[in-house]
Design brief:
alpha/beta, elongated, 12 strands, 2 domains, Rossmann fold, 4-stranded antiparallel sheet, binds calcium ion, about 45% helix
Length: about 230
Amino acid sequence: MSRILIIEDEREIAELEKDYLELSGFEVEIEERGDTGLEKALAGEYDLFILDLMLPEVDGFEICRRIREKKDTPVLMVSARKDDIDKIRGLGLGADDYMTKPFSPSEMVARVKAHLARYDRLIGSRAQANDIIEIRGIRIDKTARRVWVNGEEKAFTNKEFDLLTFLAENPNHVYTKDELFREIWDMESIGDIATVTVHIKKIREKIEFNSAKPQYIETIWGVGYRFKI
Ligand code: CA
């Protein structure tokens, strides 16, 4: 669920925005002061900010500028005056969108959704800079060495990670335990092919819904293992 922070000192407007956004399934928080709003914006995990321009303590210009120093979260700025909007554009503070009060709440929701979608795509395209393997609910980020199973991150030891990644990168290919051992463990390693079995078991416990009936890493009896696509 996307989290939105509204920094707005006019309670009625803030509540109206909140109601509409919550009806659209967003999680919304309100801060009425510029200084506390800025603090929250910088410290918290939000997906979008709705930022009023004229605020007590710290104004929207400053907040936007400070947010941009740290984050590229979308910022939708609102102001009562059209010429303020022109000023914001002119200052190039990095706000993503501007609305003049009074605005229609449904128009605001539509813009919020559009910015969130665009931001998701941006994040997505950036993530592809990492080397990622995705197979049926399993996501392996080779660059960050992290693994998610159906959206939930799972912790893997180095060798488990290497073994899983190797199999997932070479799907539908049956490898013997010997081959896997040689591939993942260097020749100096102490151990034997039983290590492979142990590691496969550990990996299955993390990725399989039912380890007894594996959906990903199949055992090919008498031969070895294969990652099934
Ligand atoms: Ca205001």
